[in-house]
Amino acid sequence: xIHRLQALAPIALAGISLLASPAWSQDVKLPPTMVVTAYDxxxxxxxxxxxxxxxxxxxxxTDVRVLPAGNDVARxxxxxxxxAAMSAMGSGTYFAQEGVFEFGTKEWxxxxxxxxxxxxxxxxxxxxxxKDTGVTEIKQLKGKxxxxxxxxxxxxxxxxxxxxxxxxxxxxxKVVEFSSYGAxxxxxxxxxxDAAFATTITGPAKELExxxxxxxxxxxxxxDKAGWERVKxxxxxxxxxxxxxxxxxxxxxxxxxxxxxxxxxxxxxxxPADEVYSITKAMIAGYDAYKDSAPGAAGLAADRQTKNWVVxxxxxxxxxxxxxxxxxxxxxxxxKELLKRQQVLAAAWTDYGKASPSSDDKAFLDGWMKARAAxxxxxxxxxxxx
Length: 386
Known about the structure:
Strand order of the largest sheet: 2-1-3-12-4
Number of strands: 12
Distance between the termini: 41 Å
Shape: globular
Structural class: alpha/beta
Largest sheet: 5 strands, mixed
Low-confidence stretches: 1-18
Number of helices: 12
Order of helices and strands: EHEHEHEEEHEHEHEHEEEHHHHH
Mean pLDDT: 91
């Protein structure tokens, strides 16, 4: 059975025309149709997926269907059911791999997710704040309304990581829950909430910028080492990043913020390596056709890939990156350790299920987190969620 797949694997290796040549991409074999899930319509991830889909239709005759979904669980469910093969995710990729938060339930557990390609561009991922609140620093969000999305640990944990920069915890703000990312940002415009997590180039942030409320991105000064230590304790996948694009942000008015790869195009490890290799290679060869199709798409270039991150790269994608000169022995070694981590987590989950865990949801999660911690400690691997 051919899996449907929309892998966004671009690469901009300046001056190497070989990558765009017909000879280099001649062994690309794509299915006639592909399905990928993404964030809501109008978001950066969705828009990039559409741009790549057009390239694949024009260049390879492959129809790409992009399915919007409001949270991480909804984005991954079609992949697990084999109705879709790829998802344009965010940090939820990491949480799903680790089997934490919404993925620590009986229905999920740790998922063997692996990267195809991801984007790091001129944008950042942080808390957008309604300008009419008067907030200019993260610490000033104390007592303010902060948006959370049900079933989306990525967005919620990301928001908490940014709040930590200002030495704030969830109990220091008023959490307002929404059914989806899109609904949360509509809530920003409608004055139902004061702050929400997003990438600075997301469509809804532009809408807020032009609304009566306006938008501001409180900075995370890179010189504030203590603040950044707090961020990384909550979100280890964040790194300091200067944003030069987004709602109200330009190269002339950059802001010191934080970031992590987004969108992260990923698939289950069970997706055949040859298929992922072809998709990745197709994205490399067709990069010039879609790199300007949507804000953030240029960040999918192979020479911009985040190396040695917290989730492994799919072997098929690694093969294509190696051929493109963007894979090293050190990265291969790191990747093997991450793949081993997924095996440890999978074994721990199986053993936990055999130990007759509680049917109570909270007790089940508590027990799993203890079993998870013990298995990782035994394997001499970091927990990440103490």
